[in-house]
Specification:
With 334 residues, the chain is α+β, with helices and mostly antiparallel strands. Helix content is 28%, strand content 29%. The chain folds into two domains: 3-137 and 289-327, Double-stranded beta-helix (4-Layer Sandwich), CATH 3.60.130.10; 149-282, 4-Layer Sandwich (Double-stranded beta-helix), CATH 3.60.130.10. The chain has a seven-stranded mixed sheet with strand order 1-4-5-18-8-21-6, with helices on one face. The protein binds fe (ii) ion (FE2).
Length: 334
């Protein structure tokens, strides 16, 4: 028997009639994994609707102890897996189960800024799931930010910038090493990122994806995406700031990458740095810090909500899973 109810948590936000995040707590001891899995399977459509409406659903107090349990919960949601090896993302990750991998392996002191998962590539997951195996003792929250609310506020403060984003889209440039570099939040090698083992195969894949590229002397690959959307429609009347603008502008920094070169509008013009600062400021104001407890499972609608990672001290084990691959193409707003 399982007893689940909607509860309030500190810092929870109210946007219109939605609560951010929506939190469902499993009450009492004694619920088994089988109870939890049966409940999730029975509630599947409701959970996805809640995640879409509110931006994210947090399941707290469920008997989820490790990556295997988390994998079983995800299977109960019956969503198509998005295997990380198929992604064009720049983070190094390690698979724990077929569906579950470590969240970004970047060192603890690295701040990962707000982004929609893989919005800097033509392929992105509709859903992201996180679960906490080891709660951090200091720092390490996963901040969440409602992208529709952010866009509305940004359009009031910087209408010309939002209009430029809609008209021109964004292009991202990323310098990838030849071999994985786990010291960096964006250290995934070009071999892993593109799923290839030679420069010729890399070029074929880049051509297919419409990227432009340059080989560097040290074997690194500098790749630039085609124009991608900066603003998208999550549904009718719900526009979102769907991009990696904040993360690229503030955080794409390592031995190979310089944030000032990481992002441009689709026509190659630089972004208005003052407007980007306003976007960063708004995202900070709108952040809900998910302070992890062991066993937490978060279901995030990646088309509605951005996520980030605070630096931390000591141990922290948060695992992730992606579902339902979608594609995006830039279509200028005329
Ligand atoms: Fe992410």
């Amino acid at each position: 028997m399982i007893d689940v109810e909607s509860v309030a948590v500190d810092g929870q936000q109210q946007h219109g009639d939605s609560r951010f995040p929506y939190v469902l707590a499993c009450r009492g001891e004694g619920a088994s994994m089988k109870d939890a899995v049966d409940w999730v399977a029975a509630q599947r459509d409701r959970l996805l609707d809640l995640a879409n409406q509110h931006g994210a659903v947090l399941l707290r107090g469920f008997p989820v102890e490790n990556a295997e349990d988390f994998d079983t919960i995800i299977q109960a949601l019956a969503l198509e897996n998005f295997p990380y090896e198929k992604s064009l993302s720049n983070a190094v990750r390690i698979n724990r189960t077929p569906r579950v991998f470590s969240a970004n392996e970047a060192p603890p002191e690295v701040n990962i800024f707000f982004h929609h998962e893989m919005a800097q590539t033509p392929l992105f997951p509709r859903w992201i799931l996180f679960s906490c195996e080891v709660a951090p003792t200091e720092g390490g929250a996963t901040p969440l930010c409602r992208s529709d609310v952010l866009l509305e506020k940004l359009a009031q403060r910087c209408p010309e910038f939002v209009s430029a984003c809609e008209r021109l889209g964004l292009r991202y440039t990323n310098v990838m090493p030849e071999a994985d570099d786990a010291k960096s939040g964006m250290g995934r090698s070009w071999r892993s990122t593109l799923g290839v083992d030679s420069k010729a195969a890399a070029e074929n894949r880049l051509r297919e994806l419409n990227y432009s590229w340059k080989w560097l002397d040290d074997g690194c690959l500098s790749a630039t995406t085609p124009p991608l959307p900066a603003v998208a429609s999550a549904s009718e009347n719900r526009r979102v700031f769907f991009n990696q603008l904040i993360a690229a502008f503030c955080g794409w920094k390592d031995d190979r990458n310089d944030p000032s070169k990481a992002i441009r509008h689709g026509d190659g013009t630089p972004l208005d740095a003052d407007a980007v600062k306003v976007a960063v400021e708004l995202s900070d104001q709108l952040a809900f810090d998910l302070q992890w407890q062991v066993g937490d499972v978060a279901l995030i609608d990646n088309t509605i909500t951005m996520h980030a990672r605070r630096p931390f001290v000591g141990k922290r084990k948060v695992v992730a899973s992606l579902a339902e691959m979608q594609t995006q193409m830039f279509e200028p707003v005329t």
